[in-house]
Amino acid sequence: MRFREIITMALSSLGANKLRAALTMTGITIGVFSVISVMTAIGALQASIESGISFLGSNIFQFAKYPVNIDAGGNVKKKYQNRQNIRYRQAMRYYELMEGNASEICLKVFDYSKGQAVYNGVKTTPSLTVVGTNRSFLTANAYTLAYGRNINDEDVALARSVLVVGKIIEKRLFPHETPIGKVIRLSGHTYTIIGVLAEKGTAFGQSQDDICAMPISRFFENYGEANRTINIATQSFSHETYNGTLDKGIGAMRIARGLAANRENDFEIYSNDSLKSAFASIAGVVRIGAFVISFIALVAAGIGIMNIMLVSVTERTKEIGIRKSIGARSRDILRQFLTEAVFISEAGGVLGIVLGVIGGDLLALWLKVDLIFPFGWAFAGLIVCSAIGIGFGLYPAVRAAGLDPMEALRYE
Description:
Blueprint lengths: L2 H13 L2 H35 L7 E5 L13 H4 L6 H11 L5 E12 L1 E3 L2 E2 L4 E6 L3 H4 L4 E4 L4 H5 L4 E4 L1 H7 L9 E4 L2 E9 L4 E2 L2 E2 L3 E5 H8 L7 E5 L6 H16 L10 E4 H44 L1 H9 L4 H37 L8 H27 L3 H6 L2
Helix pairs in contact: 1-12, 2-10, 2-12, 2-13, 4-9, 10-12, 10-13, 12-13
């Protein structure tokens, strides 16, 4: 028999049992959908985050109390929780020690309770990011000043009530006028706006334009210093001097923290590369989890295919006997049943890939990141589906091909 004839007969047999074939395909679809949707979403997120995660700017390292992959407000290991905060006095001591050895030194502290700005009765959402910092915040965090001026050393020294705000605040409170020189209320305190940041977009699915930056000294006066830790970002003069600046920075930080020579660092050091590595390790764990779940679902679907094909062999025993009696060879019967199994598996796989890509990209769209198509995983999915169809369809096909034509003709 020609292969085209085998395919035609296989499709005709499946068409005679549409519901059964569709239900069998569903298991394959679910397994492929789970892995493709996760891989699509992670791929889109990774592409976006690896570009957006460079919020530290170039040639910059940062000191912090907690590692980048530890949630400071939740499940924190005691090792990090019991560390003393990086206090303002320590940060200023580090600043003094590193002055002249670095291009920029940014001190920053966040108010995690968020804030709400009000001007002439108009309010922003109560989720603004409030940060206390110094003049180096823009450089260290890859922001650009759209207009107005930046926070300067005098603002910090005098603890002035001034703000540099993001585009979201400008658009919400000042749609038809300039915010420069205007006085707004933020979390119960009044501030004068001195500058507006250029639009930066989103990272990790969160807006970076809902920020209010004030002098760090004013931040501590208004929000208090207790239970707050400062992050210190340091930029070297060039890529060539980065390692030397990092070594000096670690030494200065140890001195500022009062660490003896035999004590290990009680602070974390990270850069853009370490942030990307942290995300890559998390993404790898998620990928493995998705693969294991999908593998279990695909094995269960393969068992379903085997079961349905065995039922089909039993129902079509007389048909097999007739075909053999008029000249069909055992290998023709084998190829027909294998083709049916592979077709069911591949059809379910294609549907799972389509739904998985749509599901993953819908999540990416919701998070406002670039859409992708995971060609590698889609191709791997089709290969796996073919293997499942052949692997689980082989026994029923061999059983059908091995039927004795005389016994099969007598089967009722």
